[in-house]
Design brief:
This protein is of the alpha/beta class. It is built from ten helices and ten strands.
Length: 351
């Protein structure tokens, strides 16, 4: 990977609107060294969607429209930077909800057109993948990456920016979906993943022996649909005898099954590649039990593990601005004005 040395510091504005969080951030690409975060602002729609038990796409799109410009103004004010000082506007092109993506794309391209600045479309998962480079302990290439974000669970061999090889991925439900669906079966409120993790803290991880799908498949793929079915079967079997203590035990046992599969597949990926550096990124990467297990495994294997800061695990504008800045820095982004925009609701990171 060839690094491009810029002639002056560049200001990159990033806009994230792929689902239920509106994120805007400003990243500076210095003359030398790695990009740094100047300011960011994030609005979560969790309270709005909780009444429906999940994300309502039309409501999400409308809320992005209301939030994105005020958040942009707040970020620029915090950084002490004017609109005219922007050098590049980046936005999430996909994957995600089509209507939500269109809001971010429309605003980014309108800003680029009005300011005469280039616009760069960014892959949402690439943003998560590179987000640890904004942490106090950034990784170095190459590394294995465990991406656990929403409907995505993937293991990647990462050689550099834009140099990604898929090692394994989910064939049905992702880890995040297993968390959310198990939580819903236990009657927990949206968002289910964090709620299940909180309940699991009071439970017995050995109380229920839930399946570990594809654990001995001989490959690095994942499957969590069967685990969700096992949780449903256990909840129905207990029926009226499902006490608060048993609910906590189910949550703890389900979480342990998910974490066990993720950790053991990740360990296998490290062994197969021979790499001694790991990145864990995405919303599920904030799960405390997953971090504990992966950290313990990596210590035994002599592997360095890197995470994004907790505030950057969920969807955010900082990771989008960072991914754009890193692409510019390594010469993979053509800085030309873009007259039209498009979104890609379904867009694999690796074809």
């Amino acid at each position: 990977m060839t690094q491009v040395v810029v002639s002056r510091p560049l200001h990159v504005l990033g806009i994230e609107s792929s689902c239920d969080e509106t994120g805007v951030a400003l990243v500076q690409l210095p003359i030398e060294g790695r990009p740094r975060l100047l300011a960011q602002a994030l609005h979560s729609q969790v309270d709005m969607h909780r009444a429906y038990g999940g994300v309502v796409p039309e409501l999400a799109s409308r809320d992005h429209i209301r939030r994105v410009l005020p958040l942009t103004r707040a970020v620029l004010a915090e950084a002490g930077v004017t609109l005219n000082a922007l050098d590049l506007v980046a936005y999430t092109q996909g994957p995600g909800l089509a209507g939500a993506l269109l809001v971010g794309a429309g605003v980014a391209c309108a800003l680029g057109c009005a300011l005469g600045r280039p616009v760069l479309a960014v892959h949402h998962l690439e943003g998560h993948l590179l987000s640890p480079f904004l942490s106090a302990d950034p990784p170095q290439f190459p590394f294995v990456a465990l991406l656990v974000s929403g409907g995505h669970t993937q293991l990647m061999h990462v050689s550099g920016v834009g140099e990604y090889a898929l090692l394994g991925e989910t064939i049905d439900d992702a880890a995040g979906e297993a968390f959310d669906k198990s939580a819903k079966l236990l009657g927990l409120a949206y968002p289910g993943g964090p709620a299940l993790a909180r309940l699991a803290a009071a439970g017995d991880v050995c109380r229920f022996d839930f399946p570990r799908p594809l654990l001995h498949s001989g490959n690095l793929d994942f499957s969590f649909a069967g685990l969700k079915t096992a949780v449903r079967t256990q909840v129905l079997k207990l029926g009226d005898s499902l006490t608060p203590a048993l609910r906590a035990d189910i949550a703890a046992s389900a979480q342990e099954a998910i974490v066990d599969v993720l950790a053991r597949k990740t360990a296998a990926a490290l062994q197969a590649t021979g790499l001694r550096r790991l990145v864990v990124a995405g919303g599920v990467g904030a799960n405390i039990r997953l971090r504990e297990r992966v950290q313990a495994d990596c210590v035994r294997q002599g592997v360095r593990v890197h995470y994004p800061e907790l505030a950057l695990c969920t969807d955010n504008g900082a990771m989008i601005a960072l991914a754009a800045a890193m692409r510019v820095q390594c010469g993979q982004a053509a800085l030309t004005s873009e007259a039209s925009f498009s979104v890609k609701p379904r867009w694999p990171l690796v074809s």
